[in-house]
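[09:14] KT: can someone run the structure on this one? pasting the chain below
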Amino acid sequence: MQKKSKLQKITMKKRLLLFICLLFLANSIYATPQKIRLGIYLMSISKFNFSDGTFVADFYLALKSDQDLPEGLKIDAMNGQIISREIADNTPKYKIFRYKVACNENISYRSFPFDSHTLSLQLEDNVLDQTIIIFEPDDKLLGVDEKVGIIGWDLSKKTSHKVNTHFYPNFQQKYSRYTFNVTLNKPVTASFIKGVLPCFVIVCGVFMLYFMNPKEPKDRINAMASLLIANVILHINSTAGLPPLSYLTIQDKLMITNYLAVLASIAVTVILIKNMPKNPEKLPKINRNAQLIVYPTYVLIQVTNILWVY
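[09:31] RB: done, C-alpha cells below
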C-alpha cells in the first residue's frame, strides 16, 4: 500500500509539472503583444532636393506604454538613413528620442508647376515583430514646431500619422510600421508667374500678329518663328530641374499647347502667302476664320490643362 501511495504521489507531481509546462507554453504562444503609443514632433526639414526627393528631417519620437517598454526596442528609419539618434527622456514606460534622418521620398511631378508633395517618415523596429509589439498612433504626441519651413514652399501645419502592418514574405514575419506625413505646397502665385504667365505672353504675341495686314503675311512669319524658338527655350528652362520622366507634367502640357498654337499660326501664314498672288481678296476672310478657330481652341485646351490640377 505504501509503495502504491508513493507511485500515486509521483504521478500527481508529474501531471502537475506537465500542466504547468503546457500552461507556460500556451501563454507564450498566445501572449498578447505589447501596445506602444507613439508620435512625432517635427523640429525641422532641411536640404530638400526637389529633383530627387531627398530631405533631412529632425524630430522627436515619443513612445508610451502601460507596461515597461521592451529592453531591445530599436526604432529604425525604413525610408532613409539615420544620421544621429539620442535619448532625451528615459523612463520605464515613457521614452523620447531625438532623431536626425536623411530620407528619400518617391515624388510625383505630374502637377508641376502646381506641386503638392507629401513627405513621410516611416519607422519600424528592426528586431521586435508584431507578435511582441504593436504600434498605435497617439495624436497627443503629434506635432510640428511653428518655426519649421522650407524656402520656396508652403508647409502645411496639419500633419497625419498612421500604423500599418508590413509583411516580409521571405521571413514570414509581420512588423508594425509607423508613418508620419507632412505636406509641402508650391505657392500658387509663384507657380503662375514663373510657369503659366510666360506661356501666355508668348501666345499673346503670336495672336497679336493676326491683326497685322493679312495682305502682307511675309512679315508675320519671321516674328512667329522667333516666338516658336522662345517657346522652346522657355520649355527647356522651366523643366530643367526635373529628372527624366515617363509622363507629361502640367508644364509640359501647357508648352505643347503653345507649340500647337504657334505652328497652327505659322500654317495659316503659309496659306496666306500661297493665296496672296491668286486670291488676295480672300486673305482677310482666311485670317478671320483662322482667328475664330485658333483662339477658342487654344483657350479651351489650356483651361483644361490647368483644371486638371484640381
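[09:33] KT: thanks! Confidence is low (pLDDT under 50) at residues 21-30.
[09:34] RB: yep, looked fine to me
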